[in-house]
Specification:
The structure holds two protein chains of two kinds. Chain A is mainly α. Chain A has 15 helices and three strands. By secondary structure, chain B is mainly alpha-helical. The chains are: A mainly alpha, B mainly alpha.
């Protein structure tokens, strides 16, 4: 009886169809198009027909090699040094532009190090992409513990019975409901090298000893500044997730710990933390996925600079796909990004499966 | 002896509140600074950053920056665009996603498991990885209007609305919620001869207040606050530009900080007001995204 009442192929399909069509058109199809476009020379607008070009978009992005430069020697075979005693090497372009080495054509120096008298030079076909890749990974590696750990501390702080505690929770959560675009612009002022609030606060705290820093204008501090700001904005969100995890831990466990005379640290280590395992995985994954998508902060605050120190994968994908109308190049970066995100979620699946 | 114990407890309580308040300052100072600065002329604003006056509405206080901001950019237009896009997307999203979820949970039909799995699998595709191919898709997509077929969706409202209507998370939230509703109610309604649409409309929807609030809050924040990358690449004309992209007017060559702060305050205050007004619902709905994955 019941099955007959609830069974209806026609109505079932009809109800699900609008949603399914929209998700197919605007998420699933573009997703497969990304793979296809990345194997072609597709442009946003082009008079020429699109051609299949295989993996060359990827080769152009990922091409990487190490070359060894031998020191310049004078007629007697002695190594040439400049006034500071630094060994002089031939320029990298003598190799990358040399017709004898066609495999290095178009590659540029990424970084180098000294090995004996020789210099080892890492050359890449697309140095900006490589920097974007490394910056994105750096962003992920730093923001995950900073934001996840910070959020846990906040959750422990807010998880006490005190009058007015809800007011504090409301305040800590406030940046979450403000657009990251607004936050980024606001912090551009805070980080300003001349009149910035941060420099002034630090100067006041150190009685004027602190030397002002142009936080976003300096390649050494720009990415770090963006990491700190992003963590500041998002930490309240994950505080709430940690809090809901904390509330699933049975109070009897804490009572037992208290009776056993456990210290605060022991209680955290042996009661709280094991109870938070699944929450921890969740928080880490959510932050990681968001971190890989880093774009608005970069676009508003630094445009990838200074010296490409804040280039990111999404920023590069947009710059190529939209800025240069190179849909295929942007798609190739998107596909690479997708595989990185996929790898992370497979790790998550693995970690959560282990327990159940 | 007893006196000492009481003092200790008082001291402990005091330290707790002190820590909580210092942390609160960390989260509040940029926001207070934003609002206060929006009321000051630029020269005073810059001079004040050197002292605590940066956080105090003192000196030459006025709304001049707000008037100047309206002169600099068509703020009313941007605001209207954002609100329009947000409201239409939220309404359509709730309607289409809840109907689909209803079908997945309550109606028994061939292929529903497969279809739902496909939809949920898209949870792991970040929008940022499909933005570029989607740009090409929408630039060549047809639209049937009153004047016949129109090619290309760039610089329209629909390009900001249609791709955002359905997402796996919203469907997932509805599916999770519907699963916990008593099935007997639905079957009873069917026995009495109610059509499927009547069951949806008269039985399920009236019971769905919490999930409707969650879906609406999440989608509104997404559309109003977080829409930046997409409109940046598909909307070039002022007539359709949303509020976050409109910020571009304020950080060109000469940054007028006071006007910028006025604009930031103006576009953030409505959301903050909503949040403070219904903070429980806000926090609960955003926390529920944590369930995804």
């Amino acid at each position: 009886m019941a099955s007959k009442l609830t069974r209806s192929n026609g109505v079932g399909w009809a109800f699900a169809l609008p949603g399914f069509v929209l998700i197919t058109t605007f998420i699933i199809l573009p997703f497969f198009f990304a793979f296809w476009f990345s194997l072609t020379n597709q442009r946003l607008i082009s008079p020429n027909p699109t051609e299949f070009i295989g993996l060359s978009n990827y080769e152009r992005l990922l091409g990487l090699d190490v070359i060894t430069l031998e020191p310049e020697r004078d007629d007697t075979g002695k190594i040439v040094r400049d006034e500071d005693g630094e060994i002089q090497y031939p320029r990298v372009r003598t190799i990358t532009r040399n017709p004898d080495f066609p495999e290095y054509k178009g590659m540029r120096e990424w970084f180098r190090w000294q090995s004996g008298d020789n210099a080892k030079v890492v050359i890449a076909s697309d140095v900006v992409f490589m920097k974007a890749l490394v910056n994105t990974l750096t962003f992920v590696v730093f923001i995950v513990p900073l934001q996840g750990g910070g959020a846990l501390l906040l959750a422990l702080l807010i998880n006490q019975r005190l009058r007015g505690i809800n007011g504090f929770r409301t305040i800590y959560f406030m940046p979450v409901v403000i657009s990251i675009v607004v936050i980024s612009l606001l912090w551009r002022f805070i980080y300003d090298g001349n009149d910035g609030l941060l420099n002034n606060i630090l100067a006041a705290l150190t009685f004027g000893l602190f030397e002002p820093v142009d936080w976003l204008g300096n390649p050494d501090t720009a990415l770090g500044s963006i990491i700190v700001m992003s963590a500041w904005q998002g930490v309240g969100l994950h505080m709430v997730i940690w809090l809901s995890g904390l509330q699933t831990i049975s109070p009897t466990l804490y009572e037992v710990a208290a009776i056993e005379g456990a210290s605060k640290w022991q209680t955290f280590r042996y009661v709280t933390w094991p109870g938070l395992r699944n929450t921890a995985i969740l928080v880490l994954i959510v932050i990681t996925m968001q971190a890989f998508a880093l774009f608005a902060q970069i676009d508003v605050m630094t445009n990838g600079g200074p010296l490409d120190s804040t280039q990111t994968l999404v920023f590069q994908a947009v710059e190529r796909g939209y800025g240069k109308q190179d849909i295929s190049g942007g798609s190739a970066i998107s596909v690479i990004l997708f595989f990185m995100v996929l790898a992370i979620s497979l790790v998550q699946r693995y970690l959560t499966r282990e327990r159940s | 002896m007893a006196q000492v114990a009481v003092d200790n407890r008082g001291l402990r309580l005091f330290t707790r509140y002190l820590v909580l308040s210092l942390v609160a300052l960390v989260f509040l100072f940029p926001l207070v600074f934003m609002v206060v600065s929006s009321l000051k002329p630029d020269n005073q604003l810059l001079a004040d950053t050197g002292s605590l006056r940066a956080f105090m509405p003192v000196g030459d206080i006025s709304l001049d920056n707000y008037f100047a901001a309206f002169d600099r950019a068509p703020i009313g237009r941007f605001m209207m665009n954002s609100v329009f896009v947000t409201v239409v997307t939220v309404v359509l999203s709730i309607a289409i996603c809840s109907v689909a979820a209803f079908s997945f949970v309550f109606i028994d039909w061939n292929g529903r498991g497969t279809l739902l799995s496909i939809i949920l699998a898209t949870l792991i595709i970040p929008f940022e990885t499909i933005a570029v191919p989607l740009l090409l898709v929408v630039s060549r997509m047809p639209w049937l209007g009153f004047e016949g077929i129109d090619w290309g969706w760039l610089n329209t409202y629909r390009v900001q609305i249609v791709p955002w209507i359905v997402d796996a998370l919203t469907i997932f939230l509805f599916v999770q919620y519907f699963k916990d509703l008593p099935r007997e109610l639905i079957e009873a309604a069917r026995v009495e001869g109610a059509s499927w649409f009547q069951v949806y409309r008269r039985v399920v929807m009236p019971l769905s207040g919490p999930v409707l609030a969650t879906a609406a809050i999440l989608k509104s924040l997404k559309m109003y606050n977080e829409q930046y990358l997409w409109p940046l690449i598909v909307v070039q004309d002022e007539a359709h530009r949303p509020i976050m992209v409109g910020l571009g007017y304020f950080f060109q060559l000469d940054v007028a900080w006071g006007e910028l702060m006025a604009y930031l305050t103006l576009i953030s205050v409505p959301v903050l007001a909503f949040y403070l007004f219904m903070q429980r619902a806000f926090i609960a709905s955003i926390a529920s995204t944590g369930v995804k994955g």
